[in-house]
Design a protein that fits this description.
Strand content: under 5%
Helix content: 40-55%
Distance between the termini: 38 Å
Number of domains: 3
Order of helices and strands: HHHHHHHHHHHHEEHHH
Largest sheet: 2 strands, antiparallel
Strand order of the largest sheet: 1-2
Structural class: mainly alpha
Shape: elongated
Length: about 350
DNA sequence: AAGTACCTCAACCGCCGGGGT
DNA sequence: TACCCCGGCGGTTGAGGTACT
């Protein structure tokens, strides 16, 4: 069938960037007559353009309610969530962002947000961590596991200092989290002998200062996932800061459970530090997600069921309900947790 | 200053689905 | 039922701007 393109009949119509006088003509006509009947509009408005071009110019640029300028944090967050829900349905996404056009959102996604997600190791299509990007972590984790499994923990110089053990525990924690997120991509290395860890090496423990004043910090799933990347636990280089984290992890290992969520420290003003793209910024500790799977009533194409770590995910859920946990990552987490409605994943 | 590479985004293209005849 | 018209959508392009060498 293939009907002809709308502009075939309009031989010699102008293409390319619009001139101000063309804009003026189009706006003046629509102001007077309203829009619609795009095919006949150019002739009526005295424009040497095809109807589609006029429509596009009006919808994407001349409409009075167009909102221009940088996307706000809330807008970006909404785009990420809706893209995870809807995929490249730009017009549907745009319908949730007043003043933004599908074209603008599409462009912004392709030029900014897609890049950001890739930098964060997130697949912009599936919204899941990219397994290829995790392999270096996995490799290191496996290397350490192998070393421990060989009984070298006690005399291997690699582990003869606190930093190495801390790093090991961090790696294990990250590994566990990755297993929960992408169980198929991250093989289980739990089989390595964690019992060797259960006999707390005295030199390590003795060198870590206890801190009775510092309460157990909140467990932060958002912070957990922020740790996947180049900024792993950057706030925890000091022993005092690291101690609660160490205790949490240690407790879980002793109970032979998944490690607890790592600690993320709130700053004094109630702000949560988080990485946002390649920048560290502090975000208000309150706020709500404008759209969630539950509120939207939409299913999640592409969601995966995580068979393991459900307890941890429940903890995450509890944490996510906490008012201090709002973050860009929370939105990702909202979209990756199982719901009661059975999805295809 | 000039050349080149990269980035951004307005605009175009081709296809699709709904509605009318 | 078949065909056509139209509006709308998503993918792609390329001109202009910017950064880098």
């Amino acid at each position: 069938m293939g009907r002809s393109p709308c502009c075939d009949q309009d031989k010699g119509v102008k293409k390319g960037p619009w001139m101000p006088e063309e804009d003026y003509k189009l706006v003046a006509y629509i102001d007077k007559n309203g829009y619609g009947k795009w095919r006949s509009l150019p002739n009526l408005a005295g424009l040497n353009r095809c109807g589609k071009s006029c429509r596009l110019r009006w919808m994407n640029y001349l409409r009075p309610d167009i909102r221009r300028g940088e996307f706000t944090y809330e807008e970006e967050s909404t785009v990420v969530k809706l893209h995870a829900l809807l995929g490249n349905k730009w017009s549907k996404i745009a319908s949730h962002l007043p003043g933004r056009t599908d074209n603008e959102i599409k462009n912004y996604w392709n030029t900014h947000m897609r890049k950001k997600m890739l930098q964060m190791g997130i697949d912009p299509i599936t919204h899941e961590p990219k397994t290829n990007d995790l392999s270096p972590i996995l490799d290191v984790s496996q290397m350490l596991a192998a070393a421990i499994g060989n009984g070298q923990f006690g005399n291997n110089t690699l582990f003869n200092n606190n930093i190495a053990v801390e790093d090991l525990l961090k790696l294990q924690l990250i590994h566990k989290m990755l297993q929960i997120i992408t169980p198929k991509a991250i093989p289980n290395i739990n089989s390595f002998n964690t019992n060797s860890l259960n006999t707390k090496p005295e030199p390590v423990v003795n060198n870590i200062k206890t801190n009775p004043v510092n309460p157990k910090p909140k467990l932060a799933a958002a912070g957990q996932l922020n740790a996947i990347g180049p900024h792993v636990f950057t706030n925890q280089t000091e022993d005092e800061d690291f101690m609660p984290f160490f205790e949490d992890v240690w407790d879980c290992f002793e109970d032979n459970q998944l490690p607890g969520l790592a600690t993320v420290y709130q700053t004094g003003d109630g702000m949560m530090p988080e990485y946002y793209g390649d920048q560290l910024r502090e975000i208000p500790s309150t706020g709500s997600m404008s759209v969630t799977p539950e509120t939207s009533g939409l299913n999640y194409p592409g969601r995966t069921q995580h068979s393991s770590g459900s307890d941890v995910l429940e903890d995450w859920e509890k944490f996510l309900d906490d008012e201090t946990s709002d973050s860009c990552w929370k939105s990702f987490l909202d979209l990756t947790q199982p719901t009661s409605s059975p999805g295809p994943w």
